[in-house]
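Example record

One chain of 446 residues, shown exactly as stored in the release files.
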Amino acid sequence: MKDTDVLIIGGGPAGIVSASTVKQYYPDKRIILMKSIREGCIPCGIPYMFSSLKDPDEDKLGTDSLEKKGIEVVIDKALKIDRENKVVEAENNKYSYEKLILAIGSSPIVPPIPGIDKEGIYSIYKDLNYLRNVVKDVKSSKDILIMGGGFIGVEFADEISNIEGINVYLVEMLPNLLLNSFDHEFSDLVEEKLKAKGVNIITNDKIIEFLGKKRVDKVKLASGRELSVDRVILGIGAKPNVSLAVKADLDLGRCSGILVDEYMRTNDPDIFAVGDCSCKREFFTRKATPVMLASTATAEARIAGANLYKIKVVREHKGTIAIYSTYIDGLVLGSAGLTEHNARIGGFEIEVGFVEGVDKHPSTLPGVSKAKVKLVFSKQAGILLGGQVSCGMACAQLINMVGLAIQKRMSFVELETLQVATHPYLTSSPTKYPVVLAAQKISKNM
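Predicted C-alpha cells for this chain:
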C-alpha cells in the first residue's frame, strides 16, 4: 500500500497540470501521479509526426518536470476505486488518498463496421510506442484512407499528403469538412487547400465495409464505390473513459462523461474529474457537448488543483466555449462559440457580421494573406455568440480574442469601439481591423 495525500490518475495534459497546480497551492501535500502508459505524447502534435517532425519522439510528453518538484510518478493501471476506504486498487499496488483527481481521458471511437479489425487500420491512441509503429507503417503506404473530416482528419490528410508517393483519400459522411465547427465560408477554404495538394476528398458518403483477407486492401462506400487502399486511419472522434468512475458509482447524469460541478467535484466531495473524462456543457445552452480539447482540459485541471481542499479560486458559472484552431498548409482557421448554422438550429435569433481583408498592412507587404472574420450576435441582446476567422500566421491569436469576448459576454458596441495594438507585419490595418468591422456590419440592424 502506498499512502499519499493527493492521487492523480492520468498522465496527459490534464493530469500533469493538475499535479503542478496542487503543488503550487498545497506545497506540503504528498502527491502521486499514476499513468498507465510509460511514454505519452502531446495530443495536438500527433498528426505532425508524419511530416513536420523529424521523429515521433519529438512529440514526447514527459513528466520529468513533475518529479523535479517532488511529485512522485508511478506507472500503474487503476482498476477499482474503494470510495468508503479511500483506496485505489491498481495492477501493481494499492494507493490510499485524501483527495483523488481523475484525469483518465478518452479513447478513440471504433465504429462497428465489418472488417474494421483487419491489419493496416489504425485508431489514434496517445501512446508514443504505438504511434512510432503507426508512423513507420503509414510511410510505407501507397494508398491511404482517412476516415473522418473533423480536425483530426484534415490535419492528418494535410501532413500525410506531404509524403512523396502516397495517395490520400479523406472520407466524411457530412456535406462539408469541419462542419461542426465552421460554416461553409471557412470549411470551403480547407477543402480547396487539401484538393490543391492532391487529397481526394469524398463527402456525403461513408464506409460500410473494409475488404481484404488478413490486411485491408479495399473499402466499400455506401454509394457503392470501392477504393483500393493499403492503410486506414480512423479519425472520427473519441469517447470519455468512464468505466472506472461507473464502477465506483460516480454520477454521469445525462452526460457521456463524469458529472462535475463548477469546481470539477463529482458527487463524492473528495473525488474530482478533469479533461476528456468529465462532462462538458455548452456555454450558452448548458446542454452536454462532446468537446474534447487540451486547452479545456488544462483549464479544468487548474480549477480542480487550486480548489482541492478549499475554494481558493472562485469560478463563475460558465460552460465550454469550444475554441478551436487548425493549420492547413499555411492557412490558419479558428472557431469559437456558436457557428451561424448551429445558432440557427439552436433557435437563436441572430445577426451576422462578415468581412474580408488582409492580415497585414499595407497589403503590398511580403507574406500577406487574405483574412476573413465572421461574428454571430444575438439580435436582441447584441451579445457575441460566436466567431470564425481565417488568415495567415500573422493573426493566429485572433480567435483567442474572440473567445475572450464571448466569455465576457461582450456586445457589438464594445467590439465596435475596441482598442487594439496594430503593426504592419503583425495585424490588419487599424482602419480596417476585421473584428471591429464585423461588429460594425451588424450595428444598423440591431
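Notes: The radius of gyration is 23 Å.
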